[in-house]
């Protein structure tokens, strides 16, 4: 299966300005995050893992300097977009669970409010956005249809426009029908689950909150009455619900419980039966109700579905699909041609950025035609927008600006640095010991900016060339289907209004999903009334409320105990599977990672020293630092003395010249202190930056504690399988 | 075999209530000389409260704590309840024999209360200082305005040591024992890294020459590499000074590595108590099993198959007829269970 790259980090370099000079927090790291995978970043505190995650979210501290590199998400470079654009990404697309739950909750606002705030705000925005998307897409489709089928025929064009309007009309009917069905269906599901739980607890004589819960079940049961959900025994259900509802006034309970249980079970039976019904095809139903008169024939759901679908396809859908496919083909072909042109233009103008130093007028001249050519390639009918093309122009302009503006700043800084350095050296030469150091010139690395510029062009060319190969294999009919389902999705988003009550019920559900007992009472409490573990759960619930695309977890379970840690990890794993989330999981605890991670990157002193799949790291680790991390944690069978890592991490004001771990490394060789090791390839998925992997290096085995453990685990796993 | 060892600390029916919240409810265990007793459980189960009650940071509600055979903590709630019940019964009782019996009960319990209050007040200071504590958060537990020397020597000075030279020598000795150097004595806590801070906390605890150290999550706030340093340090000290430790933690791998016997707590109750190997080999109580199934291990293959067992007290036990008590299934292995479960557990072990 081809993996879709969600996030790509290239050459990220970040440092912090401090009074003592520059702290080099992150030094030139690269990694990718695929869709639906968990990437774990492991390292000690101060290794730059949190800084990396904050850079992705655009919340670095004020004294940070991004010296270079790029973070590509959805075709945009997150280091270059402005705050306004970031609002759309932060929280909504990329969410973060912070290490310290207290600092990410507002202490003077109740938990419930904090949970629902984002839902309500985002709900409004999403509604508006979906409506806009639906309208624009339908309009674009309409225009493309006209262009593709009848560029000059006015009558036919009018007909196509009418068809699109019809689509709009019955689509809204469809959504209304579906929404009302969903409410009833969900209520039925809720009722069923609640009844099962309550009946079980009543049997065990451990039920709490009985009056409230019966009241709720009665409410759900009433809501579940709908033409296509609970349509039999409606009267009985209503009476039962009414009777069960009486228990809401009951203060003392214990006497009538068998009776209550019986009633609940009966409601459960009715609801359960209703839930087994098939779901009608609401789209076809919407069409039939809008254009086929007010009444539908009395048929069982399956037959009704067939009947309606046939009617809709014959009268409308087949034609519409054909037109849409034609429109898509036309638009795509046009875009392919424009891409060929753009590739040529990009290649032609690239030399302008190869010069050293860059020439300002030449660069500006080069950017203009490139920008135009790239903008021509944009295919308006793509559902997933080609954001690389969208952001190319502004990105190039911004980086060129950066280059030329910092050249000026540079000169001054260089002069200052040289002057101070001279004075410093002179003093040292006279034999004085100085208690200060000269801060190097605050310069943008021009070479880095230039390479970023070139890289942007290359990336786009590569991207376009990749596209070329798909040209022959595209199935426009399938794409037309996707287009229709996208339009449906937008339409349902546009009618989906989030009310306060809905937000509250969703928040309560989320709270119980993350394992908070008595969510109703907790909803109205302040953060200080929660214990550490509970607070962390709230934070996770808030992060998930927005339904993000990428979740960054910065030590989410470090403060929690095993059971809760395990629950929360499972929760994150479940959500990952359910929503196809991509997760960046930051931790210092390798034990946690084994469960979660698909791939692991080990960071030390601002660099990634080793990365690979979790099997690579745990069974075949190659870097001494990974060995040290692994051997310093006990497992259940460890008896021998633990191998603690001696010393402390290096001072990042003056990052060491060679391998940063050399000073604490028992396997260090002379070259480790002198030269930075490159990433050596161990296997296709596994890379490590240590000189030990150099062909000339002596052969070193990992510490005994690790090899023993691996052997033990192997034996255990083999034993467990047989 | 455990019986032959000297009991250093005995906790009997310890209860600690905060208003209506029963943080610790009827917990009993012994700690033998020279062993490490681990206490595990999820947050809020009362393990920290137990640790703190033992060193008399709280006035316990009910129960007794004996240290080297002397009672150092005593609660009176159980006696008061007994008196109350007896008085109630006396009101309605007609039988003179029974009334005399009740009177005797009341008198006995009153005497108990008196002796408990006496013991509480007059517990020997020298004895109590033989129990010391290491705290979870090394940053919060060191006064930022005191130098390391002041922090470490504070206890000694309170105990009446006046000779500056002796104090200094002792501080230096402690610093060296925990792997720091003399020069560190004049520094302030913020100048140290997390692991070094925790070392200072350990030095402060061992300067009183304690026999028992109550270590409340001493490593959970530290980085993995530094955790190993502190665990190794505690292990060395234990060998060198013959310390006994009450080790409270939620990281089961660390507890397993470190402890001789382990007690598992759940909602204020002790549900299982066994030697550590035995506990991990034959966990009996469903909660213990659920806890063990939650331990993450550095082994991806195993981790992908690992299934967490969910503990639901309502589904797992039927206590409608008989309440559970702590019973010995096998020498040294105690489980909280009622008669039916007791039989079942015995069968499992055979």
Q: Name the average pLDDT of chain B.
A: 85
Please identify the oligomeric state: heterodimer
Order of the strands making up the biggest sheet of chain A = 6-7-8-3-9-10-12-11
User: What is the CA-CA span between the terminal residues of chain A?
Assistant: 30 Å
Distance between the termini of chain B: 20 Å
Strand fraction of chain B equals 15-25%
Strand segment count of chain B: 12
Query: Which class best fits the helix and strand makeup of chain B?
Result: alpha/beta
Write down the Rg of chain B: 23 Å
Count of extended strands of chain A? 12
Instruction: Determine the number of helices of chain A (DSSP H or I, runs of at least 4 residues).
Output: 22
User: What is the typical, i.e. mean, pLDDT of chain A?
Assistant: 82
Helix content of chain A: 55-70%
Overall morphology of chain B: flat
Approximate strand percentage of chain A: 5-15%
Classification by helices and strands of chain A: alpha/beta
How helical, in percent, are the residues of chain B? 40-55%
The largest sheet of chain A is: 8 strands, mixed
| Order of secondary-structure elements of chain B | EEEHEEHHHEHHHEHEHEEHHHHEEH
Strand order of the largest sheet of chain B: 6-7-8-3-9-10-12-11
